[in-house]
Design goal:
By secondary structure, the chain is mainly beta. It contains 1 helix and 10 strands. The N and C termini lie far apart (about 50 Å).
Length: about 200
C-alpha cells in the first residue's frame, strides 16, 4: 500500500488512570494500491484507494475504488464503532459492479451459510450486474451473525440452473437479498423455453 498523506493529533494527558473525557485522539491517512483483508472469512479487497479517519475510537473509511473477486468497487463508506451494548460493528455501504458470475461467486464465498447454504453453488450466470450493498458485521463476537442487504440490478443476463436443467435468458430487473429474510421483493423478467 502507498500512503499519500497522514497525520495524528492527540490532546490530553497520557498518565495512567486519567479520565477518558479529558483525552482526544484524531488520525487520518490517504492511501492507494492497498490490499485489505477486513475480516478473515470475507473476500479480500485489492488495489483499494481511499482514506481512513480515526476519531476517539470511531474509525471512518472512504473507499474511492478497488476490486474484489473480479468485481469493481465504487464509492463505499465503512464505519467501525461500538454500539450502546459495547459490541464493535463494521458497517459498510457501497456499490460494486462487473460480471454477474463474479457477483454470484462472491455470494457463494461470503460466510452466508445460514441464509444461502449451497443453494446457488452450481448456478451459472452470464451478463453484467450493478449492486448496492449494506453490510453490518460484528467484530470479535461469537454468536452474532452479519447482516447483508444487496440490491442487484441485472440487464440481459442468462441464468443456468444445472440441477433443474433450466436456462433463463434475457433476465433483467432487480434482485433484493437480505441475509435475515433471503430473497424478497424481486422484480425480474426472463425468457424460458423461448417464451416470456
Amino acid at each position: 500500500a502507498a500512503v499519500q498523506e497522514s497525520g495524528v493529533n492527540f490532546r490530553g494527558t497520557s498518565q495512567r488512570g486519567s479520565p477518558r473525557l479529558e483525552k482526544t485522539f484524531h488520525a487520518f491517512f490517504h492511501f492507494e494500491q492497498a490490499d485489505v483483508e477486513y475480516i478473515e472469512e470475507w473476500p479480500q479487497l485489492a488495489n483499494v484507494a481511499g482514506a481512513v479517519v480515526i476519531e476517539n475510537g470511531r474509525t471512518s473509511i472512504r473507499v474511492d475504488g478497488g476490486r474484489t473477486m473480479g468485481l469493481s468497487i465504487g464509492p463505499t463508506t465503512a464505519v467501525a464503532e461500538r454500539d450502546e451494548d459495547g459490541q464493535q460493528w463494521l458497517t459498510i455501504n457501497g456499490v460494486a459492479g462487473g460480471a454477474s458470475q463474479a457477483g454470484l461467486d462472491f455470494l457463494n464465498v461470503a460466510p452466508l451459510d445460514d441464509t444461502l447454504g449451497d443453494t446457488m453453488a452450481n448456478w451459472q450466470v452470464e451478463g453484467e450486474v450493478q449492486a448496492e450493498l449494506a453490510l453490518d458485521i460484528p467484530l470479535g463476537a461469537s454468536g452474532l451473525q452479519p447482516r447483508v442487504v444487496i440490491a442487484a440490478s441485472l440487464t440481459d443476463n442468462t441464468v443456468v440452473l444445472p440441477e433443474y436443467q433450466l436456462e433463463f435468458n434475457q433476465v433483467a430487473g432487480v434482485i433484493n437479498f437480505d441475509s435475515l429474510d433471503g430473497l424478497s421483493n424481486t422484480d425480474l423478467e426472463a425468457r424460458l423455453f423461448n417464451g416470456d
